Amino acid sequence: MPEKKAVAPQWWFGGAAAAIAACFTHPLDTIKVRLQTVTGNGSIATVIVDSFKKEGPFGLYGGLSASLLRQGTYSTARFAVYDGIKLKLQPDPKVPLTYSENILAGIVGGLIGGLCGTPADLVNVRMQNDGKLPVEKRRGYKNAFHGLYRIAKEEGPVALFRGMGPNLYRSMAMTASQVGSYDIFKNELLSTGYFVDNIYTHFTASLLAGLVATTVCSPFDVVKTRMMASSTGANKGMMGVTMHIFRTEGPLAFLKGWIPSYTRLGPHTILTFLAYEKIKEVYSHLAA
Question: Which domains are assigned to the chain?
Answer without folding.
Answer: 13-282 (1.50.40.10)
